[in-house]
Amino acid sequence: MRKREGDHKFAEQSRSSREANVRKVTWIGLLINIGLSGLKFAAGYFGRSQALIADAIHSLTDTATDIAVIAGSHYWSRPPDGCHPYGHRRLETLVTAFIGLILAAAGIGIGWESISTLHQMHASPPGWIALYAAMASIVTKEILYRWTASVGKKIKSPALAANAWHHRTDAISSLPVLIAVGGALIFPSWSFLDHVGAAIVSVFILHAAMKITWPAISELIDAGAPEEIQKKIAEIACNTSGVREIHAVRSRYISSSIQIDMHIVVDGNMSVRDGHTIADNVENSIISSIPEVLEVVVHVDPSQVLSDK
Fold first, then answer.
1. Which of 6, 23, 199, 287 has the fewest CB atoms within 10 Å, measured from its CB?
2. Which residues have C-beta within 8 Å of that of residue 59, sequence separation ≥ 6?
3. pLDDT tens track for 99-156
4. C-alpha distances in angstroms, 196 versus 4, 118, 190, 193, 202?
5. How far apart are CA 70 and CA 74, in angstroms?
6. Of 183, 204, 220, which one is at a domain's C-terminal end?
7. 190-203: per-residue pLDDT in tens?
8. What is the Cα–Cα distance from 100 to 143, expressed in whole angstroms?
9. Domain end call among 155, 185, 220
10. 181 and 280 both lie in a single domain
11. What is the spatial distance between Cα 185 and Cα 297, in angstroms, rounded to a whole number?
């Protein structure tokens, strides 16, 4: 099995820097989420807004996922060892799935509470403090989303990208809260809007949970690379000098990277050394052309062996 060539020390430094960035961004997000949760809880309580309290719970789930990312990054960044020869990157996938499940649970709970209390009327409409808190949440979480998503994309961290979407859903979920609270303030008899706003928040949360959880589950069950990437892999291999045909091409994701194994057919009369060189060329061409590919395993079949089968 041949892996990407490179200096081991440089690779370790890059990996360490990547996880340091993950933890730095997540720690800042954690502190902001704690502050926003406290602000929205207090404003929801004193401002008599169920929708804002629901939104505060949503922000509180962000703190749980922030902690999961921080803790997980200490483990998934470890290099391969005797018990884990492929490394520990699957832990990042598990953390991503955990984030999605936490979101789903929060969405179901908030939705049930808002629908079951829809018939209940507020003694008085929500206060202005609830409106101001919702506005502050939207602005803060949108800024946090853009920054976290940018770093997640730059260092190719699916867990950080998932956490960024958690921030974005928190910002989006505050929009119906803002509308519901504002409507109830303008039209006091419409206080039921506060319950409706909480229900809408739950829909946003469940949608985000599905977008986060499904890719993680697909990875855990070894789903292959997208069709366009598979076609590109086959095209590169087939166009490599000395390759007569390819077959048994397989791919799977490990975190944000793709592992590939394939069989290539070469002239059965050539030497083992020449066959090895062609396999190296296939591997290097695929890795250099497709950034997501981390490793390629190439099995060489001589053409005569296939014809005799």
1. 6
2. 33, 36, 37, 40, 137, 141, 170
3. 788 878 878 887 887 777 666 655 456 678 888 888 888 888 888 888 888 888 887 7
4. 54, 7, 10, 5, 10
5. 7
6. 220
7. 667 767 777 777 78
8. 21
9. 220
10. no
11. 64
